[in-house]
Amino acid sequence: MNCKKAEFNLSSEVTYLNCAYMSPLMKTVKEAGIMGIERKTNPFMVSSEDFFNESDKLRKEFAHLVNCEEPNRIVIIPSVSYGMANVAKNLNLNSDENIVIIGEQFPSNVYSWMEIAQNARAEIITIPGPDVRENRGKLWNEQILDAISSKTKLVATGNIHWTDGTIFDMKAIRKKTRDVGAWMVIDGTQSIGALPFNIDEIQPDALVVAGYKSLMGPYSIGMAYYGEVFDDGNPIEQNWINRFESENFSNLVNYNDHYQPGALRYEVGEHSNFILVPMLLAAIQKLNEWKPENIHNYLIDLVEEPISKLREHGFWVEETKYRASNLFGVRFNKHHSMDAIKKKLMDANVLVSYRGDAIRISPNIYNDSKDLAALVTTLTS
Ligand SMILES: Cc1ncc(COP(=O)(O)O)c(C=O)c1O
After folding, report:
1. Does position 253 have pLDDT exceeding 90, yes or no?
2. In Å, what is the CA distance from 249 to each residue of 172, 238, 254, 278?
3. Can you tell me which atom of ligand 1 is nearest the CA of 81?
């Protein structure tokens, strides 16, 4: 697979290695958004079928991306916090149970658990990143598995860590959660699209993904999958479109006690956003055309040599087996100063993020070896 820079309009004046902050938009995605605005300019261009068809297409496209056989288990959400709130509402946590999360997890995958744990007087067990450099990823994964017990009701993690790309072993966590009867909920925001993910293989209870990072869509729209444990549950809001036969606009005030099938009751009100839905659809169509496996392999090749060079210069990056290629943290020795590094990268127009004690590098399919060389030269000079 080749670099796809030509599909984007990224400024040539910067080296953008910051997809974990926000991806740029592809040209086709921008066009889809402009088309959406055009349609609302003349509202007769929006038909009543469009309220359903486009969301349906988006669910199917995302289902394909994550290898889910049942598109009506996929719903459109505005944010990760929304997707997690639906989980929290249905967990029925008791005081002698616990929730296991990972240290420094993204807040949208923490606050919902804090609220229900506080209300139930239940415990949250947080597994921090081990304070070592050797075998850090391996140890961290072992400690997470050790923390899951028969008292665990929920394990809520990312499949990679959002600050430094540490990979968490989803299969092993799923096995352990099944053994103890706990739910498994995954925040896939920082990798889905760039790292293959297979719902049918992992079978999480929920997968929640914001659309504006590795999915390459716009802001304020994302996707969630809810498994069978949610089938008879309660959504956090009651909206008209999630009710059975809402397609029949003239019958809406004959209020219906039943929901649309699968997990559709958990979808956000006004999910048929005529600007954001076509944009995210256009983005995921491209990802499916390129295929996450190919994007993943492209990124593995792209970062391998630059990471070796950084290591030769004393920087620390997690070993390959336990780190993503679309997002990795670079840590340094005491004689390096974070402020000096920030200034150097900024002066060189190399755009990255800083999270905790790591420089967060997050390339994607629009980056090429020159971009990574700019990073390495700036950090090592
Ligand atoms: C791992 C992760 N999850 C979720 C989000 C965004 O959450 P929300 O959609 O609730 O704003 C981010 C944003 O940086 C993130 O890094």
Report:
1. yes
2. 47, 17, 10, 22
3. 10
Q: What is the pLDDT of residue 145?
A: 98
Predicted pLDDT of residue 258: 97
33 pLDDT more than 80: yes
Domain ranges in the chain are 5-25+292-380, 39-289
Which residue from 18, 104, 157, 190 has its CB within 8 A of the most atoms of ligand 1, so it is best to mutate? 190
Examine the pLDDT at 335 and tell me if it is beyond 80: no
- Among 157, 136, 142, 171, smallest CA distance to 328 is for 136
> What is the CA(189)–ligand 1 centre distance, in A?
6
Tell me the mean pLDDT in the region 150-169.
Answer: 97
What CATH number does the domain located at 5-25+292-380 have?
A: 3.90.1150.10
Output the CA 40–ligand 1 centroid distance in Å.
29
User: What's the token pair of residue 221?
Assistant: 């729209």
pLDDT tens profile 256-274: 999 999 999 999 999 999 9
23, 113, 162: residue to mutate for ligand 1 pocket, most atoms within 8 A of CB = 162
**Using a 6 Å CB cutoff, which residues line ligand 1?**
79-81, 106, 108, 158, 162, 187, 189-190, 210
Q: What is the pTM of this model?
A: 0.97
CATH number for the domain formed by residue range(s) 39-289: 3.40.640.10
H-type helices in the chain, by residue range?
Answer: 27-41, 50-65, 80-90, 111-120, 136-147, 170-180, 199-202, 276-290, 292-312, 338-347, 369-380
Can you give the length of the chain in residues?
381
Identical fold for domains 5-25+292-380 and 39-289, yes or no, is no
Spell out the residues 6+ positions from residue 49 whose beta carbon is closer than 8 angstroms to its own.
none
Residue 335 Cα to ligand 1 midpoint, Å, equals 32
Q: Reply yes or no on whether the pLDDT at 140 is more than 90.
A: yes
